[in-house]
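Q: Sequence in, structure out?
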Amino acid sequence: MKKPAHINEAVLQPGDFHFGDANTRIRTLLGSCVSITMWHPAKLIGGMCHYMLPSRNVKCIETLDGRYADEAIILLFQEAVRYNTNPKDYIVKVFGAGNMFPDLRKCIQDKNQAAHNSVPRKNTEIIHTLASSYGFVIEAHDLGGDGHRNIIFDIWSGHVWVKQVKAGKTFETGVLLEKN
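A: Exactly. Output:
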């Protein structure tokens, strides 16, 4: 589908979530946070979340909070159900988990311990488990590395554009996956 004449644009902050139709573009800026995009190619609907941490580790949750991966994935799953769609029918892509302070690693004595406990690493590890437990299949990802990413998701086409900025350099990776 070509670009619509009128675009509804949503800009996600950490913890935000948005689901829209073929007139929607969603943007966000990621550091160590992660965004999940989901797109239904037949219905031209989809959404994105921007989570900060894997979990808040509480047993009783009154309201879902998109700042946490284990709750953000539920928000995405609920939208799939609300639209009478199956999670496996969505093209799911995952982005982010960048190391925002690469020079700080050099200052830490126990580098192995620091890497093991890092937020980007934990955010990367949890998403694959969570996605499969809710029936989503991750078809593309751009995770890790140093620096931040700008993400633009056009629901009318399913394209996700990524621009990674690293230590004064810019790398454009463009569309990561096109499903035939």
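Confidence is low (pLDDT under 50) at residues 175-180.
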